[in-house]
Amino acid sequence: MDQITAFAGLRGLDGVCITDHYEASGPVSSRDGYMLDGLVVIVGTEYATPQGDLLLFGPDLDFPDGLPAEEILVRMDAMGGAAILAHPFRKNRPGDERLVADGMVAAVEEMNGRNTHEENGMIAEWKAKYPMNTVGGSDAHSLEELGRSATHFPRFVNGWQDLVAALKAGEAAPIINQIFPLTDFLSNNQLNCA
């Protein structure tokens, strides 16, 4: 975590969302919105469904493997959480358009730091057809990938509840920058999370 904190600061990020695959052990409240060296850390999980990968944020992220997206999304909504449809146009892990058409996800990942430019650009068709909130994410599997894409929030986000509220209100915008740092996007009352 110390390395993530150091790299995030160098990248100009105010916070990071850690969403490991199938991993959100321990109660969320014990680690939600904690700060390391001034960096906000929000913990979620990435859950794979047949309808696409979902980034989940809420009070309880412990779900059995193999549930369909619809069931996960209903459960997340009931507990006051939210889900982001991750990398919906990635060739090997596409997202189901129906989840967006039916308004079941709080946001869709428009920019993903590990996607190709073509994969990220394919969301334009969905944006023309459906109202949606969009975000960006690094999808970092190494420190060097951290901050390649991020989400800009116009207000401070300090924990999963703030994050869920901002996502549902459409108070998020994807940003991408392959030249670091991202300091051009920062001000004292704004938060950029990867």
TrEMBL record:
InterPro entries: PHP_domain, Pol/histidinol_Pase-like. Coiled coil: none annotated. Pfam families: PHP_C. One of its GO terms (molecular function) is 5'-3' DNA exonuclease activity. Signal peptide: none annotated. This is PHP domain-containing protein. The lineage of its organism: Bacteria, Pseudomonadati, Thermodesulfobacteriota, Desulfobacteria, Desulfobacterales.
